[in-house]
Design a protein that fits this description.
The structure is a single chain. The chain has a domain at 281-484: Rossmann fold (3-Layer(aba) Sandwich), CATH 3.40.50.300. It contains 16 helices and twelve strands. The protein has helices at residues 19-27, 30-38, 42-53, 59-74, 76-96, 106-132, 140-152, 155-167, 202-212, 218-272, 294-299, 326-340, 375-387, 407-423, 435-444, 476-484, and strands at residues 176-180, 186-191, 281-282, 286-291, 307-311, 315-320, 350-353, 359-363, 395-399, 427-431, 449-455, 461-467. The chain has a six-stranded mixed β-sheet, with helices on both faces. Strands 3-7-4-5 form a four-stranded mixed β-sheet, covered by helices on one side. It has a two-stranded antiparallel sheet with strand order 1-2.
Length: 485
């Protein structure tokens, strides 16, 4: 039994978040949107975040999820009811079986497995009803999920499974049959169904055997017990594996539906705020209209400024006035990438973008007074760690990097690092105030894409980024505010 609603041929595995994942979450303010998606539930937030972080790399896998999401959204009320049932089922399961399968010995395994299966089977009948109730299914993934699991969760199979669990319920006793061969060795050993003895101990087994084989010695009896143990080991191995798959199915189904429901929650909230969402398309080009930062939209109750751009460049440089929307723009594109490559909608009216291998962020951090080295050394340390993880066609977003030293030195170091990224076919989007660095990049990369935060004639900001080269002019008031505010 498989779920396969997130991956076509495998189950989704949760991962421990590393330093880069945590930086990504912080820099892109993902907490704002994952909290809304989770409706305050910690487990749902963890699942939604984890799926976003583990970006899909192939268009066919992304489309596979997009279509499943569309089908599940059409059955939203049923999916909510289904998910609530699974949640209650798992809570009850954990309370009854906190350690799942007892592996202290073969009979302990058989005992644990029979009780677990007797718990699961009646609930599998209900899960089957939910699956059969899904309507208007068009996606390959959900069709396969329904067909395979309905094929396995038949009344015949479930009845047989329940009957086997009752037959092997050793808590009520066990009966063994055997015969002697010509050499007086145990032969034709059979483990029978439960005989419902009041107490399963050696005295009862011995008494039962002496009635049938009154002349047998204690040695032969012990041989029967030994053979029984061997048989129990064989049963516990196969039966335990079957039980494990049932438990895994329950947890996997809950996790994968959790992700899709969280996505529906987020989309509903954005619709409530009257913010646009769109299903993205993929090409070698960036072409989008109305891209906005979800975190800002949530904080400002739908009051956002959007951007629209069209380019196929792999080297972007964003300059302009402080607090002009540069970092917000970077976040909006990062959020869109994570949602798009999770098989979901994006925060835009329309969006087309290239698929990337990985997404990394390197945002300016406040200096940590606990650091043994300075801020610049910490920046270089973070770059050093990142280089080992960057792959061909990754995207790195640099926000005010290289500014912890003077502009001349910072520009030279920044240029060399960015050149190394580009030489490795890593896409780069740089936000900077360093005119020297912007100039070096302009000369090196003719196809670089320059954006500038718009500043109106009266000094106010529109928070819109326009295609324009960097300006050497610095705004004294901006610098004053940044230093002394």
């Amino acid at each position: 039994m498989r779920v396969n609603l997130l991956y076509k041929n495998s189950s989704f595995k949760m991962k421990e978040l590393d330093e880069f994942d945590k930086n990504l979450i912080s820099d892109l303010e993902l907490d704002e949107l994952t909290t809304k998606a989770a409706a305050g539930d910690i487990y749902t937030k963890k699942v939604f975040t984890n799926v976003l972080i583990q970006m899909l790399k192939k268009e066919e896998d992304i489309i596979y999820r997009q279509k499943i999401y569309n089908d599940l959204e059409k059955n939203k009320d049923l999916i909510i009811e289904f998910k609530d049932y699974l949640n209650d089922m798992i809570i009850e399961f954990k309370s009854k079986f906190p350690y799942e399968i007892n592996d202290k010995g073969p009979f302990s395994v058989v005992t644990s497995v029979t009780t677990i299966i007797q718990f699961l089977v009646p609930r599998l009948y209900t899960i089957r009803k939910f699956i059969l109730s899904l309507k208007n299914i068009e996606s390959e993934g959900l069709k396969l999920f329904v067909e395979k699991n309905i094929e396995e969760l038949t009344n015949t199979n479930l009845d047989r499974l329940m009957g086997l669990s009752i037959a092997l319920d050793v808590r009520k006793g066990i009966m063994t049959n055997a015969s002697l061969n010509e050499n007086f060795e145990i032969d034709n050993y059979v483990l029978n169904e439960s005989t419902y003895l009041e107490k399963n101990d050696k005295k009862r087994w011995k008494k039962a055997l002496k009635i049938e084989y009154g002349y047998l010695s204690e040695t032969i009896f012990n041989e029967i017990v030994k053979k029984t143990d061997i048989c129990a080991k064989s049963i516990s191995k196969d039966y335990g594996l079957a039980c494990y798959h049932l438990i895994r199915f329950m947890y996997d189904l809950d996790l994968e539906l959790t992700f899709y429901l969280a996505a529906m929650n987020l989309k509903n909230y954005l619709n409530y705020l009257k913010l646009d969402v769109a299903i993205p398309n993929f090409s070698n080009n960036y072409n989008y209209n109305g891209l906005y930062d979800i975190a800002v939209g949530i904080k400002k109750h739908g009051d956002v400024v959007s951007n629209s751009h069209n380019t196929n460049s792999k080297m972007w440089v964003i300059t302009g006035a402080n607090q002009g929307g540069k970092t917000t723009y970077l976040r909006s594109l990062g959020q869109a990438y994570l949602l798009a490559q999770a098989g979901l909608f994006v925060p835009a009216k329309q969006m087309e973008l290239p698929i990337i291998e990985n997404l990394f962020t390197h945002f300016d951090k406040e200096e940590d007074t606990n650091l043994e080295s300075g801020k610049f050394d910490d920046e270089l340390r973070r770059f050093d760690l990142m280089i080992n993880k960057l792959k061909n066609n990754s995207l790195i977003m640099l926000n005010e990097s290289f500014q912890s030293t003077d502009e001349h030195e910072g520009s030279k170091i920044g240029f060399e690092i960015i050149k190394a990224f580009r030489d490795s076919n890593v896409r780069v989007i740089l936000v900077t105030h360093m005119f020297d660095l912007a100039t070096l990049l302009k000369k090196e990369y003719n196809d670089s894409y320059f954006l500038r935060a718009e500043r109106l004639n009266d000094g106010s900001r529109s928070f819109v980024l326009k295609e324009a080269d960097a300006l050497k002019t610095s705004y004294g008031k901006d610098l004053y505010d940044k230093i002394f505010n």
